[in-house]
Amino acid sequence: ISFNAIDSALSSLKNCQSFINSGMDVATQVALDLVESFNDEEDVNNMEKVMLKYAKMDRELNHYIKAFEETINQVKREKPENLPDLENLAQEKFLEMERNNSDSDLQRNEKYMYFKDQLKEMKKQYHGNDTIEQIDEDIAVTRSQMNFICPITQMTMKRPVRNKVCGHSYEEDAILEMIQTQKQKKKKVRCPKMGCSHVDVKGSDLVPDEALKRVIDSQNKQ
């Protein structure tokens, strides 16, 4: 049995995933733009609905790909004399997976979680704590600027990345170099932020801190 055509179709489906990911990246950027320009909260909420729609599409596509891969592997393993209806078999597996869907699946989508995290940080940076600003604006500004300093280089960050585990941010090149150096010594990296108890910083836990970068860039322009 030749599975070339099916492999080609699966490859095309996987390409569709990259389009979904790109769409989610754009939606995240638009939402951050809206917060930065103090737009209506409803507009931001609409972007969250868009993200959830993308997450649903991503889940469906993952299930469809998985259903077809499992079907092909089953046929290859069992080697039946007569080729079964692959489409029907895959459809049954797909529907079985879809029956177990829940809204919490969408909330756990990695891109959606990143969207929520960055949105929260953006709101914190731009809208902050009004009471602190009313008490002493200088203190508020100083506290905010302290977040701009990389705990490794002690300089204002240009490309901050955020640790998903402990929430601290560092200059991208500096933290990656530290991870690489310690890896060669077969040692773990403790979070360089003073007082942080996280003792195993991994490159896979780092995500671009777009919200912080925007605030730093905005501050630099002033």
Please describe what this structure looks like.
The protein is mainly α and 222 residues long. It has two domains: 3-126; 160-220, Herpes Virus-1. The protein has nine helices and three strands; from the N terminus they run αααααααββαβα. A three-stranded antiparallel beta sheet has the order 2-1-3. A hairpin with a 5-residue loop joins strand 1 and strand 2. Helix 1 (4-36) packs antiparallel against helix 2 (41-78) and helix 1 (4-36) runs parallel beside helix 5.
What tags apply to this protein structure?
zinc-finger, SUMO ligase activity, zinc, three-stranded antiparallel β-sheet, E3 SUMO-protein ligase NSE2, 9 helices, Herpes Virus-1, mainly alpha, Znf_MIZ, 3 strands
Q: State mean pLDDT (0 to 100 scale).
A: 86
Return residue spans where pLDDT drops below 50 for at least 5 consecutive residues: 129-143
Please state the structural category: mainly alpha
Overall tally of domains:
2
The ordered string of helix (H) and strand (E) elements is HHHHHHHEEHEH
Strand order of the largest sheet: 2-1-3
Radius of gyration: 23 Å
List the helices and strands and how they pair.
Elements: H1 4-36, H2 41-78, H3 86-99, H4 103-107, H5 110-127, H6 130-135, H7 137-146, E1 160-163, E2 169-171, H8 172-184, E3 206-208, H9 210-221
Quick gist of this model?
This protein is mainly alpha-helical.
